[in-house]
Amino acid sequence: MKIAVMSCIHGNYEALDTVLRDIDHQKAEKIFCLGDLVGYGPFPSSVVEMVRSLDIPTTQGCWDEDIVEGLNSCECSYPSMLAEKRGRLAHEWTNEHIYPETKEYLAALPKVIKEDNLAFVHGSPQSQHEYLLPELDGFIALERVLSTGADTLFCGHTHVPYVRTLDAGHLRLMVRTGAEVPEGEMREFNAPLKRIVNVGSVGEPRHGRPNATYVIYDTDRDRVTLREVEYDYQKTCAAIIERGLPAIFAWRLAKGLEFAERADDASHLCERGV
Amino acid sequence: MSMSVVTETSQKDLPVQVWAIAGAVGIGKTGWILQQIEQISAPVVYFCPSAGNVPIDLTCLTAEFPHVQIFCDGQELELIEKVEQGAIAFIELGFHLDLRSGDMLLDTLADRHACKRIALVPSELTSSEWHDWADEVIEVKYDIGFQDLQIWRSPFTGQVFDPSSLNVLWYEITQGAYGEVTRAKGIFDLFDGRAFYLDFVVGKEDSLYLPLDLPLWLDGRPDRFSGLEVVGRNLDGKAIAQCIIDCCLSEEILLHYQNQIKQSRQQSSQVAA
Amino acid sequence: MSHWAILSGIEANLTAYEAVLEDIKRQVPKVTELYILGDVINASPASEKIVQRIRNPRIGELVPQVCKGWWEEQVLMLHGFVPDIEPNPLAEKYGVAAAKSLWDNISKETVAWISNLHFAFMEFDCLLVHGSSLSVLEELTPESSPLLFLDRIARSNANRLFCGRSGQTFRYQIKDGSLSSNVLTLDGEEVSQTYNTSDRLAIGVGNVGSTPNMATYTIYSPNTDLVKFQTVRYGRSKGFGKT
Predict the structure, then answer these.
(1) What local confidence, expressed as pLDDT, does residue C241 receive?
(2) Taking CA A39 as the corner, what is the angle to CA A113 and CA A46, rounded to the nearest 5 degrees?
(3) 111-140 in C: which are within 8 Å (CB) of A?
(4) DSSP assignment, residue C151?
(5) What 3-state class would DSSP assign to B156?
(6) What is the pLDDT of residues C67-109, one digit of tens each?
(7) For burial by CB atoms within 10 Å, which of A202, B151, B186, C56 has the most?
(8) Which of C145, C147, C200 to mutate to test the interface with A (most CBs of A within 10 A)?
(9) Which residue of B has its CA nearest to A251?
(10) How much is the pTM?
């Protein structure tokens, strides 16, 4: 069976619409969404309505959480004054424009979804705000997957897709408990093959092109395909300007840049728990 | 007994004391001047007419050559006096100025001192206003279209940037988010107390990022000059100004960073001692 | 050369604390630092006395460096210094009445003192904390996954993590390990990398006050990386002939 996993739509209705048609074309039987339905883009409620009407299992993203609870991003999100200012503008605009029932829907979204040997989260199993970057220390990445009990962990949040395979994990331990056991006991820890799949972003690309990215996973063949889909991004750019969002967002979208810079430090581990 | 013959020497044979430099935008006028100054041991004075309240080149020059005396609009008489006393003068005419605007000053100086007009021109150009004006033309490889250019400039003395915001601002300006930009240069104060000169010329892949040789400023808002000049077409000055405002640190955040830096510098100097 | 005595879980047991202090005084080489990793108090009225004792060391005694623990965190939650957690840990573990006891038995002054306690200490490459680098409330035990330990140790750029939440004394060493990683990106590029780790240590420092007549604590020498677990028996059953 093929499943499609997408994330980070950010109110970009045009991109979502095109991606859904591509998913159809790919003959995926089930769709999962990893949150950040709203934030920055011009059609937050329409995006939520579309996802909801299709009954797509969705996890809560960091933006979704922030809109529900009031702005409260941790340091992970904004490394600069400019990014913070733009994020705040986007947050205020989104807050003013989304319907109350949209907020209710976002508030009820789960942080983690598990199905068979697959797990779905927005940022990481620890927090919606933690980035699982491809350069993250391998042992820490492995810990994140193992903590879900799944073999494959799907995540978003970074807006740049990748497939990471963690294999041949092996640790030798020496554990001594109490003063009564002076030598300690030797233990071995072996981890089976695990995978992290980052599904990219539908609505706010960060890979230098304005196209949407998402992932198709073939459960029978255990194969992951990263998909990049062209859509009419100019429509979204026009809507950004027309609906009163900062015009610079339109320019950045056309260049395939995120609207407000995110922190890039793979070694920064999030102190905010789920 | 031999007698030395003293022949009358004309001003043409005297070493040049006043240099006037003009040329296309971003062609390297200031750079050429800096190269000359490096080789001169005599006192040097510099004058850039209409630099106004955004004296970017002046500031960089003083940082690198603190002994050079700078003159601004309205100080022409003092400049003349310094030249009388033997200083070498460099007068830079910005690309946006009428070449003739410097004539009055140059004619006055030329009466009593050897003057030379230098124009830096694109190598494909065979005749131009610059050719008519200059005593010497220096040809430079140059790819910029320089017709119908606008200029936008603003001082922002006292404003302090964090490096990430500055990087984004600079990227957006130079990559065309606020209009087609041919040339951009600015001086920016960062929260770690350093001042940077940034320089972009279209066609050159990398901008220049130069830390200025100035003391660290760690006590509140700096009162040394910082500002930006952008040259191009269809410039959205309002959006540039708003972006600058969005980049800058509030007083509270600035003081917080400055205190942290001062504390850690104190600690390292204690350890060293 | 420094030698650290690291305690946790005094839980208002003044007698146990005094016994441990005596034991520390007897140590050769001399102990140079004293760390108390939280759970100084509990909900009992005896908490005030132990706090006073710790805040007022006698002449010649080491000045303890105290960070907050599970009990201190409950006080902070109760008084609104930190956000509540659902379900409330205090009610869950000790029942609803425990909150009233905590409220009644911890003075305003002690609450203020607790609110100023550090979360953790970082010395050289050692992190000293009650729970873990993620949270005061997290319990690390010898059965915890080595990957969990690696994550908690890495968070503070440490190589050694001392913790007290479990109340156990243990020395958990990750001797070495490796892992292969392969990353495929959108442009079709694949990057392979091997990760290695070696010599990470997590130490459970024991518990001073919860077991009657027996206290455990840890002595650590950063220069030699030597860990010693101390057991101190005190009270009437101490001494020869009686168990």
Answers:
(1) 44
(2) 80
(3) 134-135
(4) H
(5) coil
(6) 999 999 999 999 999 988 889 999 999 998 999 999 999 999 9
(7) A202
(8) C147
(9) B177
(10) 0.83
Give the pLDDT confidence of A89-121 residue by residue, as tens digits: 999 999 999 999 999 999 999 999 999 999 999
Residues 6+ apart with CB under 8 A from A263: A75, A76, A77, A78, A79, A131
Which two structure tokens, joined as six digits, stand for C144?
């915890």
Spell C156-169 as b/e; 16+ CB within 10 A means b: bebbbbbbbbbbbb
**Which H or E run includes C67?**
strand C65-67
Structure tokens at A265: 């430090």
Query: Rounded to an integer, what distance in angstroms lies between the CA atom of residue B176 and that of residue B182?
Result: 9
Tell me, what's the pLDDT at A155? Answer: 98
Q: Which amino acid is at C120?
A: A
Residue whose tokens read 């430079």 = B140
Domains in chain A: ranges and CATH: 2-163+193-254 (3.60.21.10)
Burial (CB count within 10 angstroms: exposed 0-12, middle 13-18, buried 19+), residue B153: middle
Nearest to C66 by CA among C151, C16, C136, C1: C136
pLDDT digits (tens, 9 = 90+) for B90-136: 999 888 788 888 888 898 898 889 999 999 998 888 888 889 999 99
What is the DSSP annotation of A90-139?
A: HHHHHHHHS-HHHHHHHHT--SEEEETTEEEESS-SS-TT----TTS-HH
What number is the average pLDDT over the span A245-251?
95
CA dihedral C238, C40, C139, A271 (to 10 degrees): -160
Chains touching chain C through at least 3 C-beta pairs below 8 angstroms are A
Interface of A with C (CB under 8 A): 126, 134, 137-143, 146-147, 160-179, 184, 189, 191, 200, 207, 213, 226, 228, 269, 271, 273
Q: Is 90 exceeded by the pLDDT of residue A32?
A: yes
List beta partners, residue B140. Answer: B122
Instruction: Take residue C67 and report the two structure tokens written for it.
Output: 């960070």
> Which of B244-258, C132-146, C219-233 shows the lowest mean pLDDT across its residues?
B244-258
Where do the domains of chain C lie, and which CATH numbers do they carry?
4-233 (3.60.21.10)
d(CA A188, CA A136): 23
C-chain CB neighbours of A168 within 8 Å are: 178-180
Domains of chain B: 18-140 (3.40.50.300), 150-259 (3.30.1220.10)
* Chain A neighbours, 3+ Cβ pairs < 8 A: B, C
> What is the pLDDT averaged over residues C3-8?
98
B72 interfacial to chain A (CB closer than 8 Å): no
Given CB atoms, is C213 within the 8 Å cutoff of chain A? no
The Cα–Cα gap between B147 and B233 comes to 9
The string of DSSP codes covering B72-130 is -TT-HHHHHHHHHTT-EEEEE--TTS-GGGGHHHHHHHHTTS-EEEEEEEETT--S-HH
Average pLDDT over every residue of A14-21: 98
Each residue's pLDDT tens digit, B2-57: 443 444 444 456 789 999 999 988 888 988 999 999 999 889 999 988 777 788 88
